Amino acid sequence: MKKTLFTALLAGTVLVSNAQEGTDTPTQLPVEPVEKELPYEKTIDNMAYMIGVQIAMQMERSGIEGLNVDVLRQGFQDTKKGEGKIALEDFQKIAMTFEQELREKAQEVAKIENAKGKIFLDELSKKEGVKTTASGLRYEVIKAGEGEAKPQLTDLITAHYKGTTMDGEVFDSSEGKPPLTMPLAQLIPGWKEAFQLMNKGAKWKLYIPSSLAYGDMGAPPKIKPGATLIFEVELLDFKAVPQQPQGLPPGIQLQSEPQ
Questions:
Q1: Residues of the domain holding 213
Q2: 42, 129, 190, 203: which could join 234 in a potential S-S bond, CB 3.0 to 4.6 Å?
């Protein structure tokens, strides 16, 4: 069943449920001592603070702005007293209405960003050294790779990257971190296409329209709806993803080999 806004806000629960269908028994996790000093003496207070952090993070990821914290507190207090002002059966309707408002707002922003992106990419196409594929992906070769082999969609790729907006704002980067290692099939369409054209060791600059990135919903809070994105990517290595042997019982997964 599709998650509503309310179920999404509860995504950071402490207990991990068993994966089997219809099983609510929590999985017992090993308890390790917290090394860093916590802000509150009582565990229940740290738990309350953690719930607030989780809600704030989920709001940010969902692009929710303007939430009245006083009203949120009132809802908590009324419920504790058994005086809730909104019936449980109305939660779904409210969530769906709010999600529709978020979509409409995103569409307005996406219309502006898509227009800006089209102008940017059209001008970019005139630049010497910039190549355009049939999908609309633009790229420049900064450094050529080695050999003839190129990643397949079923491969695991290892790469360094830096992502910026058209205005030059960095929204994500592997600088100072271990390189990204991911199945190529799980990446955005612009990356899927580009990496399948690259050789090991190649470094490219990619100019990706929103249709090949995060689309008209974006990836709040850093990536606007309809945003055209710029990436510098360097393909360090690639290899086949380990395949799951036939005949294993459902739910059994083998660990992939260490990096």
A1: 106-240
A2: 203
